[in-house]
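thought: fold this chain, then report.
action: predict
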Amino acid sequence: MKKAFKLDGLDCANCAAKLERAVAKIDDVSKASVNFMSSKLVLEAADDKFDSVVEQAKATIRKIEPGVVIKA
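observation:
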């Protein structure tokens, strides 16, 4: 499954790169990309693991950049 999420509060390209690297390392993530200009996270993972991956991504982002919020 592939889905895009809005990242509210993303305010620097370096932060976007850090988030992309961290989310890509989560188990079961096939691909993760963060576009700083559009403030979007595109996440790919297996359908049966997707909800779990999204929750892990939210926790990872909260830990690295507490001011950034994922919105569907």
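thought: worth noting. The beta strands are 2-8, 29-35, 40-45, 69-71.
final: tokens above.
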